[in-house]
Amino acid sequence: MITESTKGGIADALRRWRTHRRVSQLELAVRASTTQRHVSFIESGRSTPGRAMIIRLAESLEVPIRERNELLLAAGFAPAYPHTDLDDPRLAPVRTALDRVLHGHLPYPAVIVDRYGDLVSANAGFHMITRGVDSDLLAPPTSVPRVLLHPRGLAPRIVNLDEWAWHIIDRVQAESLRNPSDRLRRLAAELVDVAPPRPRQLPSHHLGFAVPLQLRTSEPDNRQLRLITTLTHFGTATDVTIAELRLEAFLPADEATSAALTELVTW
């Protein structure tokens, strides 16, 4: 983790984040409305930044708010962003909003996941397409990428597993690079081990703008669905829990899929 900075405190942590983001001291100074000299002094340990400056620098580097708290702790300050349990009554409006989004997306599948891809909530459409998945994979904490690609998950029913698997793996790897996490790196390695070889070229049925998921439903229906996905998050969240939530919504790529989901999903 980039913010494991007990050896060098805020100086090393800030330098690692800046290097990881490939941002020069000058560019960071411009973004944070300070001077390159000040950034240099912070990174060398010659200057101790205040709480507000740490937050400005972290925002300028697009550091996730969980890790911004760690930067503050490394500098001797209290965390600035609360980390509230999703079951807390104070987050009831958020839970209600998420439930409405999930229900409103029916009959199409949709899930809420955390930063690691673990399932937080799902609608009936998702439960329908995951019928027949090994119960161990669906036991909490349920990893949605693992459910999709595991041999005892949806993988045997994904017609275009070779391309879809690498779409998922690339996304997990990109997230682990952008926001370093040992857990995400381990998940990506696990998915690589169970995935077929990466295809050398895009197949003729590729939509051009998105990788479709071609999925057969479980027996006895055995329908073939073509789905594309969208990802949504709370862009202005100031609570760690809310900031790390992601909505992944599956949309029909053709009318036949839309009709099949309308028929198969019990609202």
CATH architecture of the largest domain: 2-Layer Sandwich
Radius of gyration: 21 Å
Question: Helical percent range?
Answer: 40-55%
Q: Tell me the domain tally.
A: 2
Physical arrangement of strands within the biggest beta sheet:
2-1-5-4-3
Assembly classification? single chain
How many runs of DSSP E, i.e. beta strands?
5
CATH C-level class of the largest domain is: Alpha Beta
Distance between the termini: 42 Å
Q: How many helix segments?
A: 13
Strand content: 5-15%
Classify the secondary structure makeup into a structural class. alpha+beta
Spans of at least 5 consecutive residues with low confidence: 1-7
Give the CA-based shape. elongated
Overall pLDDT score: 90
Helix and strand topology:
Blueprint: H1 9-20, H2 25-31, H3 36-44, H4 51-60, H5 65-74, H6 92-104, E1 110-113, E2 119-122, H7 124-129, H8 135-138, H9 144-149, H10 161-178, H11 182-194, E3 213-216, E4 224-233, H12 240-243, E5 246-252, H13 255-264
Q: How would you characterize the overall build of this protein?
A:
By secondary structure, the chain is an alpha+beta fold. The chain has two domains: 9-74, lambda repressor-like DNA-binding domains (434 Repressor (Amino-terminal Domain), Orthogonal Bundle); 89-264, Beta-Lactamase, CATH 3.30.450. Helices cover 46% and strands 11% of the residues. The chain has helices at 9-20, 25-31, 36-44, 51-60, 65-74, 92-104, 124-129, 135-138, 144-149, 161-178, 182-194, 240-243, 255-264; strands spanning 110-113, 119-122, 213-216, 224-233, 246-252. Strand 1 and strand 2 (119-122) form a beta hairpin. Helix 4 packs antiparallel against helix 5 (65-74) and helix 10 packs antiparallel against helix 11 (182-194). The model is unreliable at 1-7 (pLDDT under 50).
